[in-house]
Amino acid sequence: MADLRPILLVEDNPRDLELTLAALAKCQLANDIVVARDGAEALDYLYRRGIHADRPPGDPAVVLLDLKLPKVDGLEVLEQIKGDASHRQIPVVMLTSSREERDLTRSYELGVNAFVVKPVDFNAFFEAIQDLGMFWAILNEPPPRVGYGI
Amino acid sequence: MTSPQTAPNNEVTPELLAGCAAEPIRIPGAIQPHGALFVLDPETLALRQASTNLAAVTGLEMMPGQLLQDTPHAGALCRCLRRWLGGRSGVLLRTELIGIELFDILAHATPQGVIVECEPVDAVPSEGPEVFYTYIRRFLDQLAAAPDLAAMARATVDEVRALTGFNRTLLYSFDRIGDGTVLAEDTDGVLPSYRGQRFPAADIPKQARELYVNNRLRLIVDAGYVPCPIEPMASPVDGRPLDLSYAALRSVSPVHVEYMQNMGTGSSMSISIVVEGELWGLISGHSRAPRRINAQTRNACGMIGQMLSLHIEARQKSVHAAERLELTRIETELVAALSDATSLPEGLAAHREDWLGVVRADGAAIVMDGVVKQAGRTPAVSDTLILAERLHPMDDGIYATDSLAGEWPDLARLTGEASGVLAIPLSQIRPDCILWFRPEQVRTVEWAGDPAKAIDDGTTRLHPRHSFAAWSEQVRDHARSWTRAEIESAISFRGAVQNVILRRAEEKAELSGRLERANKELEAFSYSISHDLRAPFRHIVGYAELLGERETALETTSQHYLASIKDSALAAGRLVDDLLAFSQLGRHQLQSGTVDMNKLAAEVRRSLEPDMAGRSIAWEIGALPTAWGDPSMIRQVLLNLLQNAVKYTATREQARISLDGTELADTVAYTVADNGVGFEMAYVRKLFGVFQRLHRAEEFEGSGIGLALVKRIVERHGGTVSAKGTPGVGAEFSFTLPKRQVSHGVPIIG
C-alpha cells in the first residue's frame, strides 16, 4: 500500500475535528490527513491555489466533508467537485449532524458517494469512520452507492 | 316648438291628439277668453305680443311696439307695473283700474318679456284680503290637529270648497306608477261622488305632471270656452311661441277639455301637492257650471296647497325616519351577529327574525357559491337559484319589484311566495345574492271608469273615457310595496355584508400567511436543532469515551461517573433524534408504494439483533399481507413496535413475540403481541401520546416518543392504531392501513 493518497477532512467545529481525528487515529489508517477549516480552503486545496498553491499534485483518496461550513458550505463544495470533470471521480463522504431530508436529498442529487449522519454514540461514529476509511481510503475502489446512517 | 299645428284655435287635429304626451301644453299659443294677456318689454314697457281679445276685455288699444304709457286708460296699470318692476319680487297680483273698470292684474317675468294678465273683477269684494288670513289660520290649526293623512285631506277639501264654492272638491294622491287614489271629497251632491276611487296614470300625461310641479294652480273657468289666440304667434325675442307655463289664463289641451266634458264638469281648478320635489297629489275642484275664481281666492288656495305639501312632507319624513330608525336597529343587531358567525349563510339562518325584519319581508334566501339557505316563506331552492341567475348582474346594486310576474311573466308561478322581491348582490362575478320575498296580496281597486278604455284604439286619436262609473278590478301578482326606508335599509345592509365578506377574506389571507410563517419558523427551528443541539451531546459522549480509554486506571466510582455522563448525553441525543423524527413526519411527503411486509419484518428483526444479545426470544412471524404506504415510514412503525416488544419482554426468561397480519375488506391489519410486562388498560389512552411513559425510566429506557410516532405515521396513512394489555401477562399492538389499488408501485424493501 505504498503511495497512499491523503484524506481531506473538511470540518469547522474544533470539537468535531478533534473527535473525528481521534476516530481516524483509532482506525490506524496510514493515509495523511489534510484538514481544511472551511469550504473555501477545501476548494483551494483541491485546486492547488491560495495557501495550497505549492502542494504536490494529486487528488485526495477521499473527502470527508461537513455539511455546515463557513464561507462556502458543504453542499456548494460538493457541487463544485461533482460538477467538474477533472475532480468528479474523487469520492466525497458527507459528514453531518443533520437528519434533514432536504440536505440528504440534495446531497444525493449532487452526486455524493456516501452520507453519514454523525451518531451521538462515539463508538458508532468510530465504526462508521473505520468502515469509511477501509472502504475509501485503503481500497479506494470505484464507489458503489452505499449510504450510511440514513 | 315650431309646429304650425299649435294653432290658436280649438281645431282638434289628429296630429295634436296622436299622443297626449307629445302635446305642447306649455305653448298652446292661446288663452282662455275670460281675461286678456299681453307681453311687454321689461325696460320700455313696449308691447311685444297680446291676446286678440285685449281691447274687447280691457279697452286697451295697443299696437305691437307701442309703449304702455302712451296708451289711453293705462296710467294706473303702468305705474303699478313700474313699481313692481322697480322692486321686482316674484309675481305681481293687484286689483287696478283700467279706464273705469277694476281688474285683477297678474304679472310675471319670463325671458320672452313681462307677461301681464288682466281678469275683470265682477264685483268689488265686500271683504278685504284679511278674510283669507282667517281662513288660512283656521286651516293651519286643523292641519296641526289632524291625527292622520285622511284627516288632513278632509280638512283640505272642506276648506277649498268653502273658499271657492265649487260643487265638489277632491284630494287624491299618486302612487309609484302614477295612478291616483281619491283620499277625501267634499261635495254638495250636484256632481257624482268619486270617494275612494282610482284614476289611472294616463289621465294626467307626463308633461302635465312636470308642469304641475312648477305651476302649482290651474283654472278652467268654462270647459266650453273658445281659445283666444296670441298675436303675433312667435315671440319677437326668440321667434318661439310664447311660454305660458306660469300664466293663469293658459289655454289647456283640447283632450283635457274633452275629459272635463265627459266628466260632466263645466269648470275646474287643480292645485299641486308637491312633496320633496315630486308631484305627490292634487287638490281639485269642479262645478257643473262655468265658474270664475278670483285671483285672491286662487292665491289663498295656492297657499293651502303649499301648507298641505309642507305638512305631508314633514309627516312623511318623520314616518320615514321612524321606520329607518327601527330597521337600522335590526340591521345593527344582525350585522353584529354576522361578524361572529362561522359563515354568512349560517349567521343569517341563525338570526332569521332579524334577517326578515331588516326589510320586513315574509321570506329570505341567500345564494352563495351555488348553495341556498332560506328562511320564512320562500320559493323552492331551485326557483331561488333561477331567480338569482335572472337578477345577475345587478347593475344598480339593488333590485326591487312589487310584481315579479310583471317583470318576468314566466315567474308568475312564484307569485304565492315571491310577488315582491328585494335583492342585493354579494358578488360581481357570481350570481351570489341575498333575496327577500313578499307574497302576492290580492286587492280590489275601484277605478273611476275602466282605465283600459281610456284609449280608443280604432283610430290614432286619443279620447278620454266616456264613463266614469265605478269599475272594480282585482289586482293580482302584486305584493305590498317596499317602502323607501326598506329599500334604504337593504342598501345599507348590503354595505355591511360586503364589509363582513371582505373582512373574512382578509382574515383568511392573514391566517394562512401567519400559518405559513409559523411553519417556516418551525422548520428553521427544527433544522437548527438537528444541527446545533445534537452536536454538543455527541461531543460529550465522544470526549467521555476518549477519556475512559485514556484513563484506564480510574477507580470504580469515577468510572461510574464517566459512564453516567456518557449515558445521559446519549439519552439526550436520542431524545433529540426522536423528536426530530416526530416533527419531520408532518413535513415528510408520503411516497407510497407496495411494501412487502414479510421482507420488511425480517429486515427489522435483523436490525434488532444487538438488543437481543443474550436473550431467548421465540419469534412467531406469520404470512403478512402486502401493505400500501411509504416504505421508510412503515419500517419505522414496525421497528418501534418490535423494539418495544423486545424491550418489555427483557424480564422474561423465555420471551415470545409474534407478528401477524390479516386482510380485511378495505384495510390490512397487523398485530404485534408479546408476553412482556404489559400495561393496565386504564392507561391505554395515554400510551400513544408524546412523552407518555408507563414505566419508570430505570426500568426501561426510552424517550416516550416511539408509540406517538407509530400513531402519527399510521394516521397519516389513513389507518388506525389500538392496544390491549394485561399487567404481567403481555401486550398487543395493532395497526391497520387502508388498501390501495396497486398500479406501478415497486417493492422498495428487499
UniProtKB/TrEMBL annotation, chain A:
Keyword Phosphoprotein: yes
Record-linked CDD domains: REC_Rcp-like
SUPFAM superfamilies: CheY-like
Keyword Phosphoprotein: yes
Response regulatory domain: residues covered: 6-133
Modified residues (4-aspartylphosphate): D66
Superkingdom of the source species: Bacteria
InterPro entries per the UniProt record, alphabetical: CheY-like_superfamily, Sig_transdc_resp-reg_receiver, TCS_response_regulator
Keywords for the protein's UniProt record, in alphabetical order: Phosphoprotein
Classification via PANTHER family: RESPONSE REGULATOR RCP1-RELATED, TWO-COMPONENT SYSTEM REGULATORY PROTEIN
Name assigned to this protein: Response regulator
Native source organism of the sequence: Ancylobacter crimeensis
UniProtKB/TrEMBL annotation, chain B:
GO molecular function: ATP binding
Phytochrome chromophore attachment site domain mapped to chain residues: 148-306
Domain Histidine kinase, residue spans: 528-741
EC number(s) from the headed UniProt entry: 2.7.13.3
Keywords: ATP-binding, Chromophore, Kinase, Nucleotide-binding, Photoreceptor protein, Receptor, Sensory transduction, Transferase
Signal peptide (UniProt feature, chain positions): none
Reaction it catalyzes: ATP + protein L-histidine = ADP + protein N-phospho-L-histidine
Superkingdom per UniProt: Bacteria
InterPro entries in the cross-refs: BphY/WalK/GraS-like, GAF, GAF-like_dom_sf, HATPase_C_sf, HATPase_dom, His_kinase_dom, HisK_dim/P_dom, HisK_dim/P_sf
Family according to the record: In the N-terminal section; belongs to the phytochrome family.
Protein name, per record: histidine kinase
